[in-house]
Amino acid sequence: MTATSYAAAHAWLADGPAADVRLEVRDARLVRVEVGVPPSPGDERLPGMVFPGFADTHSHAFHRALRGRTHTGRGSFWTWRQTMYDVAARLDPDSLLALATAAFAEQALAGITVVGEFHYLHHRPDGRTYDDRNAMGEALREAASRAGVRLTLLDTCYLAGGFGQPTAGVQRRYDDGSATTWANRVAALADDDRTRIGVAIHSVRAVPAEALTAVANAFPDRPLHVHLSEQPEENAACRAAHGCTPTALLAAHGVLSPRTTAVHGTHLTDDDVALLAASGAGCCLCPSTEADLADGIGPARALADAGVALSLGTDQHSLVDLMAEARLLEMHERLTSLERGRFTVADLVAAATHHGYDALGWPGGGRLEVGAPADFVAVRLDTPRTAGALPTQVFLVAGVADVDTVVVGGDVVVREGRHVLGDVAALLGDAVDAVWQAVS
Fold first, then answer.
1. What confidence tens digit (pLDDT) does each residue in 155-175 have?
2. What is the CATH number of the domain that holds 396?
């Protein structure tokens, strides 16, 4: 394969920002990274600051159909969930393919090069399996391929409607009936060049305690994610059922390890933080979702101080902007601590890039260094939002409108702010309209 080379006036390398950087790509990987060199003839010039590709560590692509449709009256996570269930009941493999293709393309426009899709829409709405038991998961794989992004499909075990309760209504389409049946279905899924198959425990309320160990041990070499302590009600119900916090329950059943990523972690105790740190688990925060759903503000600084690697997710797609998520991580800390600079820019870049790649089973990704996947994003420094900003601080002021070029595995997916699929807004509009017009 012929090498492709890029020249960047500024780039965020493994040891921080650098000037006059030349990147050479061969066979989808970076084979040379030179610093302090002028562009060579034939180099493609990248504008602004070039970052490693952004990792959306926690995504529910089908939630994109909810954006701008849930803000009526007061409510909580639990009232929002009823509308989410309505959308979940309307989807089939074809409509999920259309919606996820558009949603993943929107993520690419935001500089996201790998998506961790927390997937539990496994079966038909009434719980019957499709002829291909993984039809919905394969629709997500195909959607990511069309949109040009990497995918970690986090196939999610969901066996209960709450502590001691069976699944009901649309939850039946999530339910495989047992951990063994779930594992057999997942075993039929295979990695490819752009896809990793990971696994997930939806939550301690959706997987009975007696099944936690079996799920955790089913695929010991794959990433394992779990919604954790997103809501105070979840913690209270777990204490009532098991006499401990959800984190302690996971620890007791061997779920926590360096391959585990806890999602949200909004309502953790000091002991919970210590358990996560001792196990080597990471934590993915989704600040825009946690704000939108009135979940609360998680103990991000306490987790980081304990040695827990932090990553970031868009979750319900109310906002698709990893730079904004990173800023919210810092701003939420400022609001609770009354202190600025709780995280350095380097901390925030790490959370949006290589911490997410690591959590999603792409070791070495999210870095601009030799041997890493050739995934990177160029953010302009000459827009109304970024003009005058120091290149080293542009991550704190830029947004999706400032993303110029996105490269995934050496392929240009976004150029001059336009996705190779064309009008992504039209794709989204058509896909969302089709979901809401479908009969549930």
1. 999 999 999 999 999 999 999
2. 3.20.20.140
Please give the Cα distance from 294 to 280 (Å, whole number): 28
315, 347, 375, 404: which one is catalytic?
315
DSSP 8-state symbol, 219: S
Domain extent, residue 336, equals: 1-440
Question: What digits encode the pLDDT tens for the residues 210-252?
Answer: 999 999 999 999 999 999 999 999 999 999 999 999 999 999 9
| Residue partners of 37: CB distance under 8 A and separation at least 6 | 20, 21, 22
Is 191 considered catalytic here? no
Active site residue 315: yes
Whole-number pLDDT of residue 129: 97
pTM > 0.90: yes or no: yes
Among candidate residues 264, 267, 354, 355, the one labeled active-site is 264
The tally of domains found in the chain comes to 1
Q: Where are the beta strands (DSSP E) in 120-259?
A: 150-157, 195-201, 224-228
- Between the CA atoms of 154, 52, 311 and 419, what dihedral angle is there, to the nearest 10 degrees? -50
